[in-house]
Amino acid sequence: MSAFRFILSASLTLLLCMLFSYKIGPLPPLGYFLSPFTGFWQNAETAHQSPALPAHLSGLQEEVQVKLDTYRVPHIFARNNYDLYFMQGYVVARDRLWQMEFISRAASGRLSEIFGPRALEYDRTQRRSGLPYAAHKALEQFPDDSVSREVLQAFADGVNAFIGSLSYKNLPLEYKLLDYAPESWKPYNTVLLLKYMANMLTGKDYDIEYTNILQFLDPVTFDLLFPDFPEGIDPIIPKGTPFRRTLADTSKIGSVRLHHVSSHACSLSFTLPGLPEYQPGVGSNNWAISADKSTTGYPILCNDPHLKLQVPSIWYMMQLQAPGINVYGVTIPGAPGIIIGFNENIAWGVTNGSMDVRDWYRIVFKDEAKDAYLFDNKWLNTKKVVEEIKMRNKPSYFDTVIYTHHGPVVYDGAFGYQDTLMLALRWTAHNPSNELKTFYLLNRASNYNDYLTALNYFECPGQNFVFASIDGDIAIKQQGRFVLRRKNEGKFILDGTSSATDWQGYIPSEDNPHIKNPSRGFVSSANQHPTDSTYPYYYTGIYEYYRNRRINTFLQGKEKFSPEDMKTLQNDNYNLMASEVLPYLLTQLDVSALSKAGQEAFNDLASWNFYNNPDLTAPTRFTVMWNVFYQSLWDEFLAEKNKPLTAPDPYNTTSFIINHPNHPLIDNHTTPEKETLNMLVEQAFTQMIAQINSWTDSTGMVPVWAAYKDTRLSHFLPVESFHVKHLPVGGDLHIVNATNRTHGQSWKMVVALGRPVQAWGVYPGGQSGNPGSPWYNSYTIQWVNGQYYPLLFLQHVDEGSEEIIFQTSIKPRP
């Protein structure tokens, strides 16, 4: 009996050891993960815990000093360029290693190595869209640029120095949870991150959707609903500004007439494969006011990029100082230098340019082998690249990606809905480029000419770079490598069998839309059209029509503005869209026939001041009513889920219903009745009341805007405790404070140039990427409340003693 008990006890002990040492399903090895000595407990931090920075580091050339201020912002002081970026890599990796490595994996299509088959379709999309291909091509530029090569390598060396210091005990929590270890960082990883941002900002077009729409919409109506230049727009470059045209005669480029589009684009009668849905909320605001318009006597520059609201944050604050550089701002974890920021002499910021830089080409293969494709009545050889997608606990998946001179064939029957439809992607992000050099030079720039020189290296994504200098100059330029297009080209799927549809070249960089020191005393952009129709080159894109007009109206409102005025504008909740469409919608209602609940809702909307403040119910009522109305109005464009379509944007929708209230498209084709405009409005109003009542009953909450919108910061992993939820913040998509549920002002910066420069900034989240750190979410309350932190811009290493909570000198290891 004793022997039996011993054997049973030993067997159970062995079984438990095995269970706790191996990964079971989605769980990590629990023995390691739960260990009080090395497991997740070790990831807990306290507010007063000193950061782990070594006294010596192998790889440094000279001594480096690192200071942390009261907001956990690192200030790095180095004696040479290599050490500056080495230490930046080390410090950023200390706070954000898992984030930067995870995004690099995502960009390269390698998430299946962590998550298994669940991530396979995502990985195939990344590789077929050419993100790894684009990163490798970009690296082709760097051997010719010793400065960029050194910066990339120094940053990678610093990241790897930190990785080399890790054991299981101090691995970031996500590695323990997912049971894998970080890989060494390479310059390729940094370039991948830049391509990931290019995909985020330019990776959407409506070529497929517009091609589908042409199957049932005549060209006149199409142009009415999807105009290139809608009436009433307020472009970045003020109307009436003369444009430079380096190319002598752009008319030689030719034109694609919309009603003859089938001769230059594929007119297809069958269903087209869909693309990833457009992420509403991706955009930005920036502006700069002149010294004459500023109460400080110097220019003031502001920027707030609107991106995914996430923890860890997209951005990381820091100061970098070495001979020839002293710069403060935010960087993307994984990229060297400062992306948005300022130095002693200049400030700069960016917004997405939104100009279309991607085209889809229909490819005709010779046969099922796909070894050749038709082009100008000849068969050209394809290039096949076999992508091995490794999968956790499963055999590798091998995907053959076919390349043509247009680019990779993303959809070819093996991937997509239609075996007969083959689509290749031409994208400027595939071109070799060196955007890193732009930020390297901007970080060190002193004046307007330095700014222009830096921008020459920036190709994709197209961005509106706003600029201000201590000299008093302000400027803005939409910079990128933009396609030299025929009229109407870039809207539809193109015929890949003919050179007549090949790209003709690029708009000369010196002709990109730009302006310096305009007479109105300010420059601004908010993802609107860069120009009016007098610009000598044709372009198309996905544009915003409300935020920019609100910003410009504000900046024209008085003679001088203070930094506090600029903060007020960044936090502005005025809903210009609602102010222009809601009064018209309310005229369509028969108020005398409304119920008591209807009267209450009507009065709430009719008395609303159009501010989407967090404690109001009117923004909720308007948003729900508008969404129901929009869906009913554009049922022809939204009903067919298997045939990707898109409806007109809110600005053109408003123009359509006001100017064409009896148009046949007003009728809801999903119902047997013939609806009029006022019927659609009445139905939307009634459904709005019902939907809000249902929401209130299910949540037990009052439908104020903040509660209904329910803004949150999301972690990449679906771990509820990692998210930051239920943030009481106002705003919305078409508002200067462009904060919806998932996207919004990812960084807010106000810079008042002068001697000394003063600056303020904040972003949601915190400096640390560790969910167990008090610095993981330390900035969020300030951000929600529209408040800012003063940015401590040190001029010398011995400054700022009162604001510094930690400092150390790190020397090369003997």
Description:
The N and C termini lie far apart (64 Å). It contains 23 helices and 28 strands. Residues 10-20 and 255-278 have low confidence and may be disordered. It is globular, with a radius of gyration of 28 Å. Helices cover 31% and strands 18% of the residues. β11 (372-375) and β12 (378-381) form a beta hairpin. α6 crosses α9 (187-202), α12 (435-444) runs antiparallel to α13 (448-455) and α18 (618-633) packs across α21 (677-699). The strands form six sheets. The chain has an eleven-stranded mixed β-sheet with strand order 1-28-2-3-6-7-8-9-17-18-20. Strands 4, 5, 21, 24, 25, 26 and 27 form a seven-stranded antiparallel β-sheet that branches. With 814 residues, it is an alpha+beta fold.
Helix content: 25-40%
Biggest sheet, spatial arrangement of strands: 1-28-2-3-6-7-8-9-17-18-20
Count of alpha and pi helical runs: 23
Write down the Rg. Answer: 28 Å
> What is the rounded distance between the termini?
64 Å
Low-confidence stretches: 10-20, 255-278
By oligomeric state, this entry counts as single chain
Q: Quote the average pLDDT.
A: 90
Structural class: alpha+beta
Largest sheet: 11 strands, mixed
Shape call: globular
Tally of strands: 28
Classify the beta-strand content into a percent band.
Answer: 15-25%
List the helices and strands and how they pair.
Layout: H1 2-21, H2 30-34, E1 56-57, E2 64-69, E3 74-77, H3 81-108, H4 112-115, H5 120-128, H6 131-139, H7 146-164, H8 173-178, H9 187-202, H10 207-213, H11 219-225, E4 283-289, E5 300-308, E6 316-322, E7 325-331, E8 340-343, E9 346-352, E10 358-362, E11 372-375, E12 378-381, E13 383-391, E14 394-403, E15 409-411, E16 423-427, H12 435-444, H13 448-455, E17 463-469, E18 474-479, E19 494-495, E20 514-516, E21 522-525, H14 547-555, H15 563-570, H16 576-587, H17 596-606, H18 618-633, H19 635-638, H20 650-659, H21 677-699, H22 705-709, E22 711-713, E23 724-727, E24 743-745, E25 748-752, E26 758-762, H23 780-784, E27 789-790, E28 804-812
